[in-house]
Amino acid sequence: MNTWALIAFALWALFMRSLPKIMEFLKLRQWSQSVPGPTISEFIENVKKGQILSWFKELREKHGATFRIWLGKDLMVFFTDPEDVKQLLGNNNLLHKSRNYSSVEPWLGKGLLTNGGESWHSRRKFLTPAFHFRILSEFKGPMEENCRILMRRLEEKANGEEFDIYPYITLFALDVICETAMGIKKNAQMQSESDYVKAVQQICHILHKRSFNFWQRNNVFFKFTEDGRKRDACLKILHDETNRVIKLRRKMLQDSKITTMQEAEKSCDSFGQKKRFAFLDMLLISQMEGVPLSDREIREEVDTFMFEGHDTTSSAIGFAIYLLSQHAEVQKQAYEEAMAMEGREKESMPYMEAIIKETLRLYPSVPFYSRAVNEDLQVGQLTVPKGASVSILAYMVHRDETYYPDPEKFDPSRYFKNEKDLHPFSFVAFSAGPRNCIGQKFAMLELKCSLSHLLRNFEFLPVKDFKPVALPELVMKSGNGIKVGIKRRS
């Protein structure tokens, strides 16, 4: 009898503990009936088809600028009107990421991408100087060196025949991010079979797969599945390597007797050249200067920079190459500017910047991003209840015909014709407000450097009937690669 009483008491205690969550869920279910949106079965059906982005277009046409989707037991409210987006991204109380970011926490911990609230705010404040444009000068050298390797690797393909250029681009981006984030040369372009390179590629694939898989997304036993075991094996390789490099770079700084940023700026190598410092070095020097930052927290920020700076830039470069191959006149103007600005990519390149912006409008590297609603939130006429999540659907914000006539057309000149008429939140590829992309200047510099190098060396040729299949994974990818032809410029 006592056993049954204990079981009953335990069940009652569990129920009482869960009651607030149950009541919150029931409230969300009731509220969601007042907002238009599809059923869960419709969502699952379209995920299986792999046509999520075209389905989002249909949902916007059918339901208007705001609609909701149930992701299992999670309610997500999507916003596509720039005025609503302005309210959301400018809200200083809306700083916590939604629950769907938890899948990357085993890799990134509480780095800048996944963190929220006061902890995020203090971390963001001291990291911002590391992305100051003056310090980006440290990163331009590795970008250009790896561009030259990319050019040599592409020589073998410069016969005009079609091929998938994306694998070349993604290895180039991985080399750049390893050298600028950690200060190490991985030579991914030359050694694509290394354990570290394969671990980065495999974990990104597993995370992408998990983000839209209901069973994997909500499975507390995920780590015991085959994909879970593969993820953990990748994590060991990645974390071990970052920890190893942290020790290595700290010893390098100690041997050089560098303990402050001021000393770092004055330091030179044995040839009298100014020493180059990576993002990791800046974090280690900050730690020595007294910033309360543990080795684990340093690793989290370096891993975050690796994740955010690898897939996103390779995605943007790949889609830009495809669009240039399809628009000969645009490519010609871009080539002329790249020739005129050789070696000066840090300066303003109006036409190249317009091409990059138009590429990211059509193919935003992060097609949607979301925040957790921790207290009732007023957005326009709608009050989103606590417990829901809100998502900025950048893919559809960028297709608002009010601001972008003929929205599916690739037209970089639109930014010279009517940019002053654009809503300031009608382009949100780098987010905006307090949680805007801290690496935006880094990304733009890498995109300008890489595309300029490519254009000065090669002409991109279109592949007949090819169109990339845009997949909204954690980062926008082309499901069928990026097929082009290239030929050497005379």
Tell me about this structure.
By secondary structure, the protein is α+β, with helices and mostly antiparallel strands. Helices cover 53% and strands 9% of the residues. It has helices at residues 2-32, 40-49, 52-63, 82-89, 105-108, 117-127, 137-154, 166-182, 195-211, 214-217, 226-255, 261-266, 279-288, 295-326, 328-340, 350-362, 394-397, 414-417, 440-457, and strands spanning 66-71, 74-79, 163-164, 369-372, 377-379, 382-384, 389-392, 458-461, 470-472, 476-478, 483-488. A 4-stranded mixed β-sheet has the order 1-2-7-4. A 3-stranded antiparallel β-sheet has the order 3-11-8. The protein has a two-stranded antiparallel sheet with strand order 5-6. A hairpin with a 3-residue loop joins β9 and β10. The chain is globular, with a radius of gyration of 24 Å.
How far apart the termini lie comes to 91 Å
Report strand order across the widest sheet: 1-2-7-4
> How does the helix and strand content classify structurally?
alpha+beta
Shape: globular
Count of DSSP-assigned helices: 19
Strands, total number: 11
Q: What fraction of the residues are assigned to beta strands by DSSP?
A: 5-15%
Mean pLDDT: 88
Major beta sheet summary = 4 strands, mixed
